[in-house]
């Protein structure tokens, strides 16, 4: 470890995650513009959005299988190339298919970043994994917040969405240069001496499968809501993108102060508290209007703040034999769930809008009407009713998580009383 420049590797990882986050924040801010410029319906926007979430799990799971063999550095070089290609293709997109392919490439790049950087951070800080993973992952909401603020600023001075997307090239080039010059450690599983057989046993153990399923819910609660907030609440508040900005700002601060929180409540305790608060926050988002909705955004941000890094940190600490594969399967599960949910909810949102139109309305005529016409006003009213309905349906997910994480807390306490070691004995 003497020749490993730990701080530079950590900050390079943070920059790579920043690019991942900017892709989410900027895309969330320009979703309506893409729909208008390329004449896309919400279902098509849902498929484009889902492409990022398809590429991510494919890359992170594939990376989990090969990272121990080829090393983390080669994966990050791949991520750099894919980020450059995806960003440039988005900037020069000509329609639905180029947007779909470019978003898929960026999603693969994002997944490759996490496939390498999650085990890299765990390897760099083996005695403080959950805290440092929270510090690393604060750059995700931080990047989303920066991306949404960039969208607001650039829109106010009439700078095109293409320029906004192109801004991601700057941190991409920096992290690409940094990683090309640094030496990398081996993954923690390799350095700890766990065999490949141990790894495969660990990822089919009951505790791992339980966390894998829970990741579906934590990821959908956090990422689906964030990515679709501008669309779902556009007609509920004048500044829907500021909701995402506030939510992610809260998450940055929370993850920055993760160490005392995690140490006081334990990872499983943090997950239970997070699920309870996220349930309340999502309920408030689906019911409040006007400026009161920013209170809902604050509560929701507190709730989802620790979900992603603490899920990964829990696995790293309690199922260490699973290694990089375990961390990446957890991340892949989350993004896969969001991809499926985005497609389903994109279509459901379109259906809800139609259902809220007047009984005798011809949907195609109403949806194509000018905004300042009576039919256009009816569509806007329908959207203001449909968006919160989608959030209320999503509310079921964190409610289920409250139950699951209560069971997890009870189980982990029983293990502690029985003096079961933290290393999982997979069967």
Could you please describe the fold and organization of this structure?
81% of the residues lie in helices and 0% in strands. It has 427 residues and is an all-alpha fold. The longest helix is centred in the C-terminal third of the chain and has 33 residues, at 323-355. It is globular and about 70 Å long. It has helices at 6-37, 42-70, 72-91, 96-124, 129-137, 139-156, 161-166, 169-181, 188-192, 196-202, 206-232, 240-256, 258-287, 293-304, 307-318, 323-355, 363-367, 374-394, 396-417. Helix 1 crosses helix 11 (206-232) and helix 13 packs antiparallel against helix 14.
Largest sheet: none
The backbone outline, from C-alpha atoms, is globular
Distance between the termini: 33 Å
Structural class by sheet pairing and helices: mainly alpha
Which band does the percent of strand residues land in?
A: under 5%
**What is the helix fraction of residues, given as a range?**
over 70%
**Average predicted local confidence, pLDDT:** 84
Count of helix runs: 19
Strand elements, count: 0
């Amino acid at each position: 470890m003497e020749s490993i420049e730990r701080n530079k590797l950590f900050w390079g990882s943070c920059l790579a995650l920043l690019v991942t986050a900017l892709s989410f924040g900027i895309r969330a801010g320009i979703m309506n513009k893409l729909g208008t410029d390329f004449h896309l319906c919400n279902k098509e926007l849902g498929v484009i959005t889902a492409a990022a979430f398809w590429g991510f799990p494919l890359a992170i799971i594939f990376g989990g299988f090969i990272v121990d063999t080829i090393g983390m550095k080669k994966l990050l070089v791949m991520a750099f190339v894919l980020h450059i290609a995806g960003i440039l293709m988005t900037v020069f997109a000509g329609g639905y298919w180029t947007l779909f392919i470019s978003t898929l490439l960026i999603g693969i790049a994002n997944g490759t970043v996490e496939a390498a950087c999650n085990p890299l951070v765990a390897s760099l800080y083996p005695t403080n994994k959950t805290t440092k993973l929270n510090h690393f992952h604060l750059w995700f909401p931080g990047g989303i917040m920066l991306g949404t603020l960039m969208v607001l600023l650039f829109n106010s001075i009439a700078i095109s969405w293409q320029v906004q997307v192109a801004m991601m090239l700057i941190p991409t080039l920096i992290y690409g240069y940094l990683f090309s010059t640094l030496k990398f450690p081996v993954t923690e599983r390799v350095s700890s001496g766990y065999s490949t057989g141990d790894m495969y046993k660990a990822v089919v153990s009951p505790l791992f499968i339980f966390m894998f399923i829970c990741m579906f819910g934590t990821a959908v609660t956090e990422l689906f809501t964030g990515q679709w907030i501008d669309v779902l609440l556009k007609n509920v508040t004048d500044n829907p993108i500021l909701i995402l900005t506030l939510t992610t700002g809260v998450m940055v601060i929370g993850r920055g102060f993760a160490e005392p929180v995690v140490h006081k409540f334990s990872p499983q305790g943090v997950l239970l508290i997070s699920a309870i608060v996220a349930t309340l926050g999502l309920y408030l988002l689906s019911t409040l209007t006007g400026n009161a909705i920013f209170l809902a955004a604050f509560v929701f941000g507190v709730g989802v703040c620790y979900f992603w890094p603490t899920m990964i940190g829990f696995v790293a600490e309690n199922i260490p034999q699973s290694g990089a594969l375990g961390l990446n399967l957890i991340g892949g599960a989350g993004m896969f769930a969001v991809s499926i949910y985005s497609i389903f909810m994109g279509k459901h949102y379109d259906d809800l809008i139609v259902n809220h139109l007047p009984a005798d309305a011809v949907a195609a005529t109403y949806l194509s009407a000018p905004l300042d016409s009576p039919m256009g006003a009816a569509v806007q009213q329908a959207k203001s009713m449909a968006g919160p309905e989608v959030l209320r349906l999503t509310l079921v997910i964190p409610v289920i998580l409250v139950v699951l994480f209560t069971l997890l807390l009870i189980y982990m306490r029983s293990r502690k009383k029985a003096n079961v070691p933290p290393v999982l004995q997979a069967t």
